[in-house]
Design goal:
The structure is a single chain. With about 120 residues, the chain is mostly helical. The chain has one domain: Four Helix Bundle (Hemerythrin (Met), subunit A) (Up-down Bundle), CATH 1.20.120.340. Helix 2 runs antiparallel to helix 5, helix 3 runs antiparallel to helix 4 and helix 4 runs antiparallel to helix 5. It is globular.
Length: about 120
Protein backbone atom coordinates (compact mmCIF):
# COMPACT_ATOMS: atom_id res chain seq x y z
CA UNK A 1 0.00 0.00 0.00
CA UNK A 2 1.41 3.40 -0.87
CA UNK A 3 1.65 6.38 1.48
CA UNK A 4 -1.27 8.33 0.01
CA UNK A 5 -3.59 5.33 0.26
CA UNK A 6 -2.48 4.67 3.84
CA UNK A 7 -3.11 8.31 4.74
CA UNK A 8 -6.60 8.22 3.20
CA UNK A 9 -7.47 5.00 5.03
CA UNK A 10 -6.18 6.38 8.32
CA UNK A 11 -7.92 9.73 7.91
CA UNK A 12 -11.27 8.02 7.32
CA UNK A 13 -10.95 5.51 10.16
CA UNK A 14 -9.97 8.16 12.71
CA UNK A 15 -12.76 10.66 11.93
CA UNK A 16 -15.69 11.20 14.28
CA UNK A 17 -18.99 9.77 13.09
CA UNK A 18 -20.31 13.30 12.46
CA UNK A 19 -17.30 14.16 10.34
CA UNK A 20 -17.75 10.91 8.38
CA UNK A 21 -21.31 11.96 7.57
CA UNK A 22 -19.95 15.23 6.16
CA UNK A 23 -17.41 13.30 4.06
CA UNK A 24 -20.16 11.03 2.75
CA UNK A 25 -22.42 13.98 1.89
CA UNK A 26 -19.50 15.67 0.11
CA UNK A 27 -18.93 12.50 -1.91
CA UNK A 28 -22.58 12.12 -2.90
CA UNK A 29 -22.76 15.78 -3.94
CA UNK A 30 -19.57 15.43 -5.98
CA UNK A 31 -20.88 12.33 -7.79
CA UNK A 32 -24.22 13.97 -8.55
CA UNK A 33 -22.54 17.08 -9.97
CA UNK A 34 -20.46 14.79 -12.18
CA UNK A 35 -23.65 12.97 -13.22
CA UNK A 36 -25.16 16.26 -14.37
CA UNK A 37 -22.01 17.07 -16.38
CA UNK A 38 -22.13 13.66 -18.04
CA UNK A 39 -25.84 14.03 -18.72
CA UNK A 40 -25.23 17.36 -20.42
CA UNK A 41 -22.48 15.69 -22.49
CA UNK A 42 -24.98 12.93 -23.37
CA UNK A 43 -22.68 10.35 -21.79
CA UNK A 44 -25.48 8.29 -20.31
CA UNK A 45 -23.34 5.38 -19.15
CA UNK A 46 -21.11 7.63 -17.02
CA UNK A 47 -24.17 9.54 -15.76
CA UNK A 48 -25.67 6.29 -14.54
CA UNK A 49 -22.41 5.24 -12.90
CA UNK A 50 -22.16 8.51 -10.95
CA UNK A 51 -25.80 8.43 -9.88
CA UNK A 52 -25.30 4.84 -8.67
CA UNK A 53 -22.26 5.90 -6.63
CA UNK A 54 -24.32 8.63 -4.98
CA UNK A 55 -27.13 6.13 -4.38
CA UNK A 56 -24.66 3.78 -2.69
CA UNK A 57 -23.68 6.57 -0.30
CA UNK A 58 -27.28 7.56 0.42
CA UNK A 59 -28.24 3.93 1.01
CA UNK A 60 -25.33 3.51 3.41
CA UNK A 61 -26.35 6.65 5.31
CA UNK A 62 -29.89 5.28 5.49
CA UNK A 63 -28.81 1.83 6.72
CA UNK A 64 -26.70 3.15 9.60
CA UNK A 65 -29.41 5.38 11.06
CA UNK A 66 -30.06 4.62 14.72
CA UNK A 67 -33.83 4.40 14.56
CA UNK A 68 -34.20 3.59 18.27
CA UNK A 69 -31.86 6.23 19.66
CA UNK A 70 -32.31 8.81 16.90
CA UNK A 71 -36.00 9.42 17.44
CA UNK A 72 -37.71 11.93 15.19
CA UNK A 73 -34.47 13.10 13.60
CA UNK A 74 -33.60 9.58 12.42
CA UNK A 75 -37.16 9.03 11.20
CA UNK A 76 -37.07 12.27 9.20
CA UNK A 77 -33.66 11.44 7.74
CA UNK A 78 -34.95 8.02 6.70
CA UNK A 79 -37.85 9.69 4.88
CA UNK A 80 -35.46 12.10 3.15
CA UNK A 81 -33.05 9.34 2.12
CA UNK A 82 -35.95 7.25 0.80
CA UNK A 83 -37.21 10.24 -1.18
CA UNK A 84 -33.72 10.93 -2.56
CA UNK A 85 -33.31 7.32 -3.65
CA UNK A 86 -36.60 7.29 -5.51
CA UNK A 87 -35.97 10.72 -7.01
CA UNK A 88 -32.50 9.75 -8.26
CA UNK A 89 -33.76 6.49 -9.72
CA UNK A 90 -36.41 8.43 -11.61
CA UNK A 91 -33.88 11.09 -12.66
CA UNK A 92 -31.59 8.36 -13.95
CA UNK A 93 -34.38 6.80 -16.02
CA UNK A 94 -35.69 10.13 -17.34
CA UNK A 95 -32.23 11.67 -17.80
CA UNK A 96 -33.47 14.72 -15.89
CA UNK A 97 -30.69 16.98 -14.55
CA UNK A 98 -33.25 19.12 -12.69
CA UNK A 99 -34.23 16.15 -10.53
CA UNK A 100 -30.57 15.40 -9.79
CA UNK A 101 -30.07 19.05 -8.80
CA UNK A 102 -33.02 18.86 -6.41
CA UNK A 103 -31.28 16.03 -4.54
CA UNK A 104 -28.00 17.96 -4.55
CA UNK A 105 -29.83 20.89 -2.93
CA UNK A 106 -31.22 18.64 -0.19
CA UNK A 107 -27.81 17.07 0.44
CA UNK A 108 -26.17 20.50 0.62
CA UNK A 109 -28.69 21.66 3.24
CA UNK A 110 -28.15 18.53 5.33
CA UNK A 111 -24.40 18.86 4.91
CA UNK A 112 -24.48 22.47 6.08
CA UNK A 113 -26.18 21.33 9.28
CA UNK A 114 -23.70 18.52 9.89
CA UNK A 115 -20.77 20.87 9.27
CA UNK A 116 -22.18 23.29 11.85
CA UNK A 117 -22.52 20.48 14.38
CA UNK A 118 -19.07 18.96 13.79
CA UNK A 119 -17.21 22.24 13.54
Amino acid sequence: MNGVSTYKDTSVTTQSSGRLVVILYDGAIKFLRLAIKELEAKNYEAKGRYINKALDIINELNMVLDMEGGGEVAANLRKLYTFMTGHLNEANTKCDPRMVQEVITLLEELNKGWKAITG
